[in-house]
Amino acid sequence: MNRYLLIIILLINLKPLVAQTERECSIEKLLKKNNVPVLGLGIIEDGKLSSINVFGNIKPNEKAPYNTIFNVASITKTVTSVVALKLISEKKWELDEPLYKYWIDPDIANNPHTKLITTRYVLTHQTGFPNWRKGKLNFLFTPGTQCSYSGEGFEYLRMALEKKFGKTLNELAKELIFEPLQMKDTQFIWNKKIDESRVAEGVNKEGKVYKSYKRKISNGADDLLTTIEDYSIFLIHVMKGDGLSQEIVKEMHSNQVVFGKKHFGLGFMKYNFKDGNYALSHGGSDNGVQTLMVMLPKTKKGIIIFTNADKGYMVYEKLLNRYLGKYGAEIIEIEMGKKATNRSLNEIKKYTITDQQLYNEILAKDKEFFNAYNNCDMKKQAEMYDDKVEFFHDKAGLINNKEQVLNATKKNICGKVTRTLIENSVEVYPIEGYGAIQIGYHKFFNNQEPNAISSPSKFIITWHYVNDSWKISKVISLH
């Protein structure tokens, strides 16, 4: 063979390998930047699993294996949903049959709303239950009249299924899904079958390991253990509609109920795209867990993203854009709003800390105030606000009354929203004879919609140093 022809052939074959290596390096940098120890990534093309990649280290200096086991948090709900939908397809269960025939929680035994709960309402988050009970279970609204994300609903469905069939949810899933699909590393519970050396332990944003919760009883909403390969096989099975009746597949892919800027089908969130295509999706979020799956039934594409870190969501945008293209971009747009256009920043001077002591002090005060904010400690917030505080909001306008600011927080924030500071975004400037100005970015997570992607928003806080203490005198909140 002509040696020049040989060189051309080698270069052609080498090009995709170089591109792949560059992508892997890019992902590794992304993980390191966001303190994500392990990322599991599954890509589905043409209805088939085209690649499995697991990046990072499962332990210091120990590379994570391709069959790393992840806790997938609320993605668990998709498996519980398919268990129910398979039983419905087999005429052993009914979508709209009231669940009280099989299970009534003692907390709501005397509430007439109990007789309204159905499998459809569970799978579309219309049960009226809170996400998780605090004390006794209660209804927030009449079932079927509103949509509010609820793990309790899936636990209610689990109990009904287990009472009806005399088997645990794990046993039902094993019979209907895990064994037929040879998902050998997937379970709702911890037992001797779990290879703990392959489990990715969750970490917080500082990289400290959370203690693993070893569930002994199935939970219909949370804590499924699985691998990228196993869950990808399951997702392809669902994408094809295998084991499901045509009627149930149609219901699962339909717009059952509006949920923010998207809809729920049966057991999956649904994104409707501008060109008529759509995606079925679900996410998971717990301490040390951030997971996401998206499938596009029409184009037979899909992506599975499992991470073991509080900041795992930071990798979503790049991966969705890279592997789902315009549909990934539309998902980001639906969740986060339109991205800002790129602009040249070359002429803008980079911020540098001029007073480290002041910088540390303001960050400590920020933490003190927003711990109170996240935990609804109104007394502490009142102590830290200046009596003449002004609160500017680019959408809600101005509040210049301390009592009104506190009342608005209590009504709209307490128990509903959690604020997280993006620490490396903070700038602090001393104001001689007054105090300091803090500028930065933070995120607000909607506790009623835990799987939604939160986008950073800018804020400015004016701190007044008076009588040997720091007070917030002005807040500017920009979204």
Please tell me about this protein's structure.
This protein is 32% helix and 25% strand. The protein is of the alpha+beta class and 479 residues long. The chain has 2 domains: 35-336, Beta-lactamase (3-Layer(aba) Sandwich); 356-478, Nuclear Transport Factor 2, Chain: A, CATH 3.10.450.50. The strands form 3 sheets. The protein has a 9-stranded antiparallel beta sheet, with helices on both faces. The protein has a 6-stranded mixed beta sheet with strand order 13-12-17-16-15-14. α2 crosses α5 (169-178). The longest helix is centred in the first third of the chain and has 31 residues, at 3-33. The chain is globular, with a radius of gyration of 25 Å. The model is unreliable at 15-22 and 340-346 (pLDDT under 50).
Brief write-up:
The protein is α+β, with helices and mostly antiparallel strands. The chain is built from eleven helices and 17 strands.
Instruction: Give the strand order, joined by hyphens, for the main sheet.
Output: 3-2-1-11-10-9-8-7-6
Low-confidence stretches: 15-22, 340-346
Largest β-sheet summary: 9 strands, antiparallel
Here the CATH topology of the largest domain equals: Beta-lactamase
State the end-to-end CA separation.
63 Å
Number of discrete helical segments: 11
**Which second-level CATH architecture of the largest domain applies?**
3-Layer(aba) Sandwich
The CATH superfamily of the largest domain is DD-peptidase/beta-lactamase superfamily
Using DSSP, what is the number of strands? Answer: 17
Radius of gyration: 25 Å
